[in-house]
Design brief:
The protein has a single domain, classed as c-terminal domain of poly(a) binding protein. It is an all-alpha fold and 115 residues long. Helix 1 packs parallel to helix 2, helix 2 crosses helix 4 and helix 4 packs across helix 5. The termini are far apart. The protein is rod-shaped and about 85 Å long.
Length: 115
């Protein structure tokens, strides 16, 4: 009995990898064995950085809130503690957006939290 190779499935598998590697430099987008390695590596980086992105955005929000809070004579940690004490449920993303785009609203939030 002759050996079955299932050319359709193997061709489809290779084509899928090469399509994912489209735009890569040189042989990384042309040669299957090299493309396979780089697509896998790219997937690992994408998975890891989806988590890192959340950390970096939180750091950015905290830095923006701290800078805006200091303009009103209060530190970031004291502002967050005051907001928690008053049970104000504004998250850091919204606070940072207020600080950057609507300083008057941020000032009102600070006054309400501190008072």
């Amino acid at each position: 009995m002759p050996r079955s190779q299932n050319k359709v499935a193997s061709h489809r598998r290779r084509k899928k990898i090469l399509e994912q590697a489209k735009g890569y430099w040189g042989a990384r987008s042309k040669v299957y064995t090299i493309a396979k390695h780089h697509v896998e590596k790219a997937g690992l980086h994408a998975y890891r950085h989806r988590r890192t992105k959340k950390r970096e955005f939180r750091q950015l929000w905290i830095a923006r809130i701290n800078a805006a809070a200091r303009m009103h004579g209060i530190t970031y940690s004291k502002l967050i503690a005051a907001l928690n004490a008053k049970n104000i449920g504004i998250n850091r993303k919204v606070l940072a957006d207020l600080a950057a785009n609507n300083p008057q609203a941020f000032a009102d939030v600070v006054k309400f939290a501190v008072a």
